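Before surveying the methods themselves, let us examine one representative protein, written as a sequence plus integers encoding its fold.
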Amino acid sequence: MFGRMSTTFNSFAFFFLVGLAGSSLANDSIKPSNIFDKVEFFHSRERRAADSNKTVTQNQTVQDDHQYYTSKFVDGKDLWKELEGNANSIKHWNISNGPTKYAELKLKFKFPYYGHLVENISVTDEGFLYTGWVSTRFDIMRQVMYVAPLMAYFNPAINNSASIYYLSTDDQFTVQWNNIYLEREQHAGAFTFQCTLFKSGKIHFAYKSVPKNVTDIQGYSDHGVRVGLSDAFTVTRQAYLDGKIILVRIFYRYHEIALEQSLVRSDTGFILQPKANCISATSCDSCREVAESSDFSCKWCNTLQRCSDSIDRNRVEWFQSFCNYHAIITPQECAGNFSTVRPPVSDNHGIVYASKDKQNSGLGAGAIVGICLVVAFIVAAGAWCLFAYTHPTSSSGLFLISLRYRPRELFGRGDSSGGGGVNVESTTKSSSLA
């Protein structure tokens, strides 16, 4: 097939270093201007290569089946909705003229993206939308949580005719990159293409003008060329760096759809249709149905009232609520709605998730045993002292009385007058440099 799907824990470990004074672990407290980034490859669970031997004509419809979406290559003329000159469309001047690289817009509907309901979309000047819910830097937005009809190193500011339009309604949102040029390949000509998000979760990519083969567009270390989708989850931790407490926020890209770039030509398009997944299920029964009819290992967590296979944007919360232990799925368990809380452990990727309730009020078995032993020792010592004090002629009582004189003997050795003085000797070492 023409696409390749990678269900991944692709490690995009982006270290955002922020001082903790007056701040919390919440993602919203991390400001992009204070972020230091680091990217690492973590783990690829599955990857399917594109079929380079398949020949596709412009009018031929080809479909590919990914885990979260089905994608279809179609005639782009049927998908195109011209926004230039449309009375209802809006030209975003700041992005079109270059002062800003992206702008966040609020949708008029909740867009299901990988099953998650997204309300805010960031429109960029480089041919993609950012669907993330956390503030981050632009170079990271290019790598995670993107919808990319054609992500490349575009710059609308270098051409007066370039513009970026959007049209927002109650059931769809369309962005048009109009007459935009590549920053370092201006000789290639002007690109014009669109992306439309539907309330149902469907996505359209439509291409009106593609003057250069996408596979020949030069990519750079921080400006990749991408056509497709991806999503990620984040993990935020505390760490020490140069004697300071900092926050480390790691992005794990758990899935990517990379459509075949050689098919992107003028008057072509793609239709991406979402498939039922765990997050889209809203009850225990529907969660079980998705698990039985798909490749997802869905489980229902009563604590969160959520269906998941633990690999989605809510992964941390899933582990913090112990859903990885007491999630249910069988018809009998769905009817019973029971759960059993068990201690947390690290997942198979080395990430430890601890319950907030356990951190605040719970104690481990070892700690409880230790506390009991200390309390028992204190009670026994107190009982012995009480017995010795009330029975002065007993062995315990005589021993307790003798303790009154032992400190005097100990500290009185240095002073024959009995003043209890202490002799201290001090030795000073000196050194000189020749």
Observations:
- The longest strand covers residues 226-241.
- Residues 4-60, 339-362, 408-434 have pLDDT under 50 and may be disordered.
